[in-house]
């Protein structure tokens, strides 16, 4: 199914006031398992990275929720969010201006296949982005160039173990649950080799969305989105649905974050540049 129209409708609902926008970010942090994994890695990066002031690139910033999260964790950071959707760029700039932190967090249009800002960033985020870009190795080279020495690229993306839910539709279909994906997902060996070829000297990849995490994703995201796709009326009962299901999802998400997985439908990848 097409995921973007539903995301736009949700964004329109929560974009009416800064309070609703922050509520939207809060809900995304609670419901999205990948946000749990990203939070954990950002906290670890904060404890281990020695610089007090860091420069961050949110590569594929979308609604801006991860730029917002970084601004809360790294109070002295300078953050740039880039995306190919101009309406989201304008929307994010308006919101962060309303918060009075647009001097530290700014958003610009950029195509990651042509992005070129050498040796500028200490941390680059790529959350749910690479599965949408065909020329991924070109992007990896650009992001490598954009990092400073000791900088880290943090990627969250579907794995090839069913990350785009491609095995959950009929045999006549050629697309998965989210049609905007250009690949079903990455194998660990595949993305590691591509990042090594781009220049990264240290790559650490792990599976996420194990059995429990995948079930939590279906409860918290897939089933509600399918129902919203069929009827806007589901917005009315959505709060009740989450009151019932969220406690279970939170437990399953916690287990997924703190356990290692032999396989999973997601990947979390940390790639470092010239670690000294």
Structure description:
With 276 residues, this protein is of the alpha/beta class. The chain has a single domain (4-272), classed as Vaccinia Virus protein VP39 (Rossmann fold). The protein is built from 9 helices and 7 strands. Helix 4 links the parallel strand 1 (55-59) and strand 2 (78-83).
User: Cα distance, first to last residue?
Assistant: 45 Å
Q: CATH homologous superfamily, by name?
A: Vaccinia Virus protein VP39
Structural class: alpha/beta
Largest sheet, strands/sense/barrel: 7 strands, mixed
Quick one: how many beta strands?
7
Q: What is the compact description of this entry?
A:
Helix content is about 45%, strand content about 20%. The protein is an alpha/beta fold. β2, α5 (about 85-100) and β3 form a beta-alpha-beta unit.
Features:
single chain; 276 residues; alpha/beta; Rossmann fold; 47% helix
Describe the secondary structure blueprint for this structure:
Blueprint: H1 4-14, H2 18-31, H3 33-48, E1 55-59, H4 65-73, E2 78-83, H5 86-98, E3 105-109, E4 121-127, H6 136-146, E5 147-158, H7 188-198, E6 202-208, H8 211-230, H9 234-258, E7 266-272
Parallel strand pairs: 1-2, 1-4, 2-3, 4-5
Antiparallel strand pairs: 5-7, 6-7
Helix pairs in contact: 3-4, 3-9, 6-7, 8-9
